[in-house]
Amino acid sequence: MAMEFLGYVTLFFLLSLVAVTPIYFSLFKYGFVKSILASVIVCSVLVVCIYWGSDVFADLRLSMMGYGINGLSDFERLEGVPLEMHKEATQLYQSTFGVGWPLSAILALSIFVAPYILIIVSFATFYKMWRSKNIPNKARQKRPAGWTR
User: Fold this and answer.
1) How far apart, in Å, are the Cα atoms of 119 and each of 5, 20, 38, 122?
2) CA atoms 27, 28, 32, 35: torsion sign
């Protein structure tokens, strides 16, 4: 239970970083092109960490349960697992099948993260342009009548 909580906290932290990174780079650090490049690089590393970490986390949980991944049959694999955890261990083992973490990370980057970065950086750039036009320049401000230097 504590292991799952730690996994969820880590996942939430990394997803929060993925969400905040383009905002930070576009509003506070760089211009349009540099913020896109910096955001893509940082978010790519974070997304790879998320998907690789979930794969490692599943293997770690299986090994902590006593699951023998090298067994040839279900009986051999479940030998070291307590009886009450057989169903959970089998479900966790079967969840590792299918598309691997590298392909999942590539798909997540191309389908979700890249458009998110483009949208956020575009809005932030337009916001900075709008803000710079609406904030009056002190040199342009009208001085009150009778004002002398």
Assistant:
1) 32, 13, 15, 5
2) negative
Count of C-beta atoms within a 10 Å radius of residue 10: 15
Q: Would you call 67 exposed, middle or buried from its count of C-beta atoms within 10 A (0-12, 13-18, 19+)?
A: buried
Q: Which residues contact 112 (CB under 8 A, 6 or more apart)?
A: none
The pair of structure tokens assigned to 26 is: 């576009």
pTM (predicted TM-score): 0.74
Region 39-51: mean pLDDT is 93
With 0-12 / 13-18 / 19 or more C-beta atoms within 10 angstroms meaning exposed / middle / buried, residue 7 is middle
Quick: pLDDT tens for 80-111. Answer: 778 787 888 888 787 778 888 889 999 999 99
Look up residue 113 and give its two tokens.
Answer: 């993260």
Structure tokens at 14: 């990394």
Per the CB < 8 A criterion, the answer to whether 118 and 48 are in contact is no
